[in-house]
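name: query_chain
kind: protein
chains: 1
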Amino acid sequence: MSRDQTKFVEAVQAKGRQVERGLQRVNNPDYQNFKTEAELKGLQVNRFTDEKILQAEKVINQARLEQEKSLKFFKESQNKLADLESKHQQFDKKVSETKDLIDHISDEINPQSKIERKLNLAVNFSSNHLYNPFEISIQVFF
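structure:
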């Protein structure tokens, strides 16, 4: 019967039809290995269940591949995020250094700007906290 099924499919294919041979179970070492492995897993393999088991294994394998892709993407995203955070910190440091340099240059050009900046700092601080006016006046001039 198995040979007849194979010959039938070959004859139909020779006439230009798109058909495939069903699963060969007799004398097929791949099928026998599959059946043995499935039975070791506690699955009952027969002509009614073998195709469903193979389909389920394909779905499981596809899901594993998708899971691996997702995990790889997640790790790459984490690495990119860490890189961006590092660049952000470097940028913040450069901004702070540049601001300090601008303040220093401004102080040299116009010493009054240093006093104004400290006064603004003291006023901003005092609006959020209780303060001693004497301490603020000392901070402004030193």
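note: The CA atoms of residues 35 and 46 lie 8 Å apart.
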